[in-house]
Design a protein that fits this description.
The chain contains three helices and nine strands. With 138 residues, it is of the alpha+beta class.
């Protein structure tokens, strides 16, 4: 397996930063999504950090976790951007990144270029602890 990616949460700009780059901007550039149509799920829904840590079940059909939601309302309208979380003692993986539905099973469109990231479990734990400070509390 290649060297793990780094992950941080930029609370000022409200985005995941993977390998030093805003994930939303990276997806905009490589998957041609409209970045203004999305906002990070941590800032608009409760329990996102717990889902990202595997302590709560995924919020999208088919066992995907929403990482970006509607840029206008923060809800699941439209096509949330989600991923599957896989973790063990050696790594944490975000895989099958793409557009997913919160209500229709099988309504998934995985991205063609940005497909997965692998993180060191210790660094991922630090990311979760920092991101928790910015999570929407309702």
């Amino acid at each position: 397996m290649k060297k793990p990616s780094t992950i941080e949460f930029d609370g000022r700009n409200g985005d995941y930063v993977i390998d030093g780059v805003s994930l939303l901007q990276h997806l905009s550039r490589h998957e041609s999504i409209a970045a203004n149509d999305y906002q990070v799920a941590i800032g608009c829904q409760t329990d996102v950090v717990r889902r990202l840590g595997g302590a709560m079940p995924p919020d999208l059909q088919g066992q995907w976790i929403a990482i970006y939601l509607c840029g206008m309302c923060g809800g699941y309208d439209g096509n949330p951007i989600g991923m599957r979380l896989k973790r063990n003692d050696d790594y944490v993986m975000w895989s099958e990144i793409g557009f997913y539905s919160d209500h229709e099973e099988g309504n998934a469109i995985p991205f063609g270029k940005v497909r997965q990231y692998v993180f060191d479990p210790g660094a991922y734990g630090a990311f979760l602890a920092h991101a928790d400070r910015y999570e929407y509390r309702g």
